Amino acid sequence: MRALKISLFALLGTTVLQFLVVLISGSVALLADTVHNFSDALTAVPLWVAFLLARRPATRRYTYGLGKAEDLSGLFIIAVVALSAIVAGWQSVDRLFHPQPLENLWWVAAAGVIGFAGNEAVAVYRIRVGRKIGSAALVADGIHARTDGFTSLAVVVGAIGVMLGFPLADPIVGLLISIAIFVLLWGTVRSLGRRLLDGVEPDLVDRAEHALSHTPGVLGVERLQLRWIGHRLHGSALVRVDPMSTAAEADELRAAGAHRLGHALPNVEEITIAVTARAHH
Ligand SMILES: [Zn+2]
Predict the structure, then answer these.
(1) 281 inside domain
(2) Distance, CA 145 to ligand 1 centroid (Å)?
(3) Are both 208 and 255 inside the same structural domain?
(4) N or C: which end of the chain has fewer CB within 10 A?
(5) Do 257 and 166 share a domain, yes or no?
(6) 74/24 same-domain check
(7) Last residue of a domain, one of 196, 219, 244
(8) What pLDDT sits at residue 193?
(9) Ligand 1 centroid vs 185 CA: distance in angstroms?
(10) Are 256 and 179 in a shared domain?
(11) Tens digits of per-residue pLDDT, 210-247?
């Protein structure tokens, strides 16, 4: 939550400074970078709401809790970022065909540097916290912010191009930034689509299978299913045991298996382990 708040205010501050320079310069490259930084800052809001919802205890209607709100907020984020890229791209194309003189070019270059610094600060912070709390999503957000920092530097390149007597450098950089946003967005669409279809990283399944099959008393893993609900892992497993084992032994084995899964996988909420005496394959 603190990582979200700090990112939100750092990016909003960057956006306000950049927008002031858009107004005094008329640079579309800077406009593209600014609307993108603004939409990135806004992404903290639905995530914030989702985290608050996910903290609520399960009810008789939502027996798994509201962890999936995190994935739904991802859909909203994709829509906002896509809209920002369309607006920026359309403005840039319009300026390519209707060129307008730019003013205060040194300010444009300075605003590009501010965008780089703001994004890089957010990137360093997110990656550090993400590694500390084991959140792959936060680390990925950090890498996103670092990429955005380099798109802000492109604004500086565009401003220098205009100063050197190539006025189309500004809308061309604006268009390139819009395209870069779509490329970044495609990665988000893919990972979110996977989550909505209950996809997990195959490596997690390998680790869970290894942990279960090495639990004393387990003769084989017959079935194993995992899925993310928000950033918590749920699932079920069916393991084969000796037909002569007692109910008490089966209980003990399930407890040992659950303990091993907790060590082998990150953020396990609950993985139900059932036992069977016969092979299902
Ligand atoms: Zn971004």
Answers:
(1) no
(2) 6
(3) yes
(4) C
(5) no
(6) yes
(7) 196
(8) 87
(9) 8
(10) no
(11) 999 999 999 999 999 999 888 789 999 999 999 999 99
CA torsion, points 113, 116, 120, 126, in degrees to nearest 10? 140
- Token pair, residue 236, equals 């079920």
Query: Cα of 195 to ligand 1 centre, how many Å?
Result: 20
Q: Residue 275: what are its φ and ψ, rounded to 5°?
A: -115, 150
What spacing in Å lies between the alpha carbon of 19 and ligand 1's midpoint?
Answer: 16
**Domain endpoint, select from 196, 226, 243:** 196
Q: Between the CA of residue 218 and those of 135, 173, 241, 255, 277, what are the distances in Å?
A: 31, 60, 5, 12, 10
Lowest mean pLDDT among 18-22, 45-49, 128-132, 135-139: 135-139
- pLDDT 10s digits, 141-153: 888 888 888 888 8
What number is the average pLDDT over the span 173-185? 86
Distance (angstroms) between ligand 1 centre and the Cα of 122 equals 11
Cα of 160 to ligand 1 centre, how many Å?
23
Q: Ligand 1: distance of its center to the CA of 56 in Å? A: 30
- Is 178 in the same domain as 215? no
Is the same domain home to 155 and 243? Answer: no
Residue 94 lies in a domain: yes
Q: Please give the distance, rounded to the nearest whole angstrom, from the Cα atom of residue 181 to the centre of ligand 1.
A: 7
Structure tokens at 60: 């008789």
Q: Average pLDDT, whole number, for the chain? A: 87
Segments forming the whole domain that contains residue 254: 202-276
Q: State the CATH number of the domain containing residue 109.
A: 1.20.1510.10
The CATH number of residue 232's host domain is 3.30.70.1350
* pLDDT tens digits, 88-120: 888 889 888 887 788 888 888 999 999 899 899
- Whole-number Å distance, alpha carbon 18 to ligand 1 midpoint, is 15
CA 4 to ligand 1 centroid distance, Å: 15
Expressed in angstroms and rounded, the spacing between residue 92 Cα and the centre of ligand 1 is: 18
Provide the pLDDT for residue 280. 66
